[in-house]
Design goal:
With 231 residues, this protein is an alpha+beta fold. It is built from eight helices and four strands; from the N terminus they run βαββαβαααααα. The longest helix has 22 residues. It starts with 13 loop residues before the first strand and ends in a 16-residue tail after the last helix. Pfam families: Y1_Tnp.
C-alpha cells in the first residue's frame, strides 16, 4: 500500500495552514486581513466549501474547511485566495514574486471527535502566541462570530457537532465560550499540530483505519485519545 500523500475527502473538515514564503509577513495592515476574509467569504460558495473556523496570523493563515463532493474545490480555493493576496500585495508594494509557500498543509479531521477541538486550536493561536490575553480580543479570527459577538457571522457554516453545545443559539454561544476557556491538554495540542505538520489525519485510531480502507493509504504515526468536551 502506498504511503500517504495529501488526502482530501469529500464532506470532511480539513485543517489547512498556508504560510508566507520563507515565513515572510503576509498580513501587514488591517486591509490585508479584511481583504482575505472578504475573499474567503466570497469564494467559499463558488468552490463548494464550508468554513467552520479561521485565524489569520501575521505570516500564515489557519482554516477549518470542508469541500463538497468535488474535492478539487479545496485546492482551487487555496490557489485563488493565495493569488488574490499576492496580486494585491505586489501591486501595493510595486514588487513581483510569490507571497506564499508553494504548498499548503492540510489534515483531514474527524468531525464528531475533533472538529470542535480544531476550532479551538485555530482560534487560540493568537493567545498561544501571546498576542492577546483572550481570543475575543483578536479581530482576525472566527471566534467572535462563532459566539455571536460579531454582526458579520451569517456566512460561517454550522456542523451538526455544534448541536451538542446547546438547544438554542444563545446556549451554544455561551457553551462555546466555556469550551474555549477550558485548559487544553498537551496531548490534544500535540495530536492536532503533528497531524497538520505531517499531512496526516486528525482523529481516533478507528477513524484512521476507516480512511485507510477508503483511500488505500497507510498511516505510520497515530494520535491517541480524544479531546475533552465538557461543555
Amino acid at each position: 500500500m502506498p504511503r500517504m500523500g495529501r488526502v482530501v475527502l469529500p464532506n470532511y473538515p480539513h485543517h489547512v495552514v498556508q504560510r508566507g514564503h520563507n515565513r515572510q509577513v503576509v498580513f501587514a495592515a488591517p486591509e490585508d486581513y479584511q481583504r482575505y476574509v472578504g475573499d474567503l467569504r466570497e469564494l467559499k460558495d463558488e468552490f463548494g466549501i464550508k468554513v467552520y473556523a479561521y485565524c489569520l496570523m501575521t505570516n500564515h493563515a489557519h482554516l477549518l474547511v470542508a469541500p463538497s463532493e468535488s474535492v478539487a474545490g479545496l485546492g482551487q480555493l487555496m490557489k485563488v485566495l493565495a493569488a488574490r493576496a499576492t496580486r494585491y500585495r505586489n501591486r501595493l508594494e510595486g514588487r513581483t514574486g510569490t507571497l506564499w509557500e508553494s504548498r499548503y498543509r492540510s489534515s483531514v479531521v474527524q468531525s464528531e471527535t475533533y472538529l470542535l477541538a480544531c476550532c479551538r486550536y485555530i482560534e487560540l493561536n493568537p493567545v498561544r502566541a501571546c498576542m492577546v490575553a483572550d481570543a475575543a480580543d483578536y479581530p482576525w479570527s472566527s471566534y467572535n462570530a462563532r459566539v455571536g459577538s460579531s454582526p458579520d457571522s451569517d456566512w460561517l457554516d454550522i456542523d451538526t457537532c455544534f448541536d451538542v453545545l446547546g438547544d438554542t443559539t444563545l446556549e451554544r454561544h455561551e457553551n462555546y465560550k466555556i469550551f474555549m476557556s477550558q485548559s487544553v491538554s498537551t496531548e490534544e495540542l500535540k495530536t492536532i499540530r503533528q497531524a497538520l505538520q505531517r499531512g496526516q489525519l486528525t482523529g481516533t485510531t478507528r477513524f484512521i483505519d476507516e480512511v485507510e480502507r477508503i483511500a488505500g493509504i497507510r498511516i505510520e504515526h497515530r494520535g491517541q485519545g480524544r479531546p475533552r468536551r465538557d461543555a
